[in-house]
Amino acid sequence: MSTAALHGLLAEFDSAAQLLAAVRALRAAAGHLVLEAYAPFPVEGLTAALGERTDRVPLAMLLGALGGGLGTFALECYAAVFDYPLNIGGRPPFSWPAFIPPALEMTLLGAAVLGVLAMLAASGLPRLRHPLFAVAAFERASSDRFFLLVRAAARGFDEAAVRALLEELPALAVIAVPA
User: 11 and 171 in contact (C-beta within 8 Å)?
Assistant: First the structure.
């Protein structure tokens, strides 16, 4: 099977300790590989072993909060001072304390909306079809099996070499996942 039609190689393990040892062994042997681990429960140390990934959701939420709050405050200032100034009760046109509650609400709304959109984009959702769903053994990932996927999209991915590395590990099976 050529790497163009290959999503990756999937190794199945019997325990969390075997999965963690396999991730560490693959990182030590070929650190440039893109690894994804699937387990039925959180495995302590697995995230650190897989390597830190940059998370852009907090940055998107910050930008959403700043855009929502500052945009609303600027709109209120423009409307009250330049576009439609009203002299009510002798108050000045730029009465900023009255602008704070709507700007605060839009700050929270902007952060929440961009946070949800960034989370969906980072997760690749909505995704109706994933190549792993075609693997029959992957159904056990949510009950009692542990899986390690080596993605073929990584630079320098050599199917034969990666398969040899995975077969050296105590994997129950090594499965080629079609794209």
Answer: yes
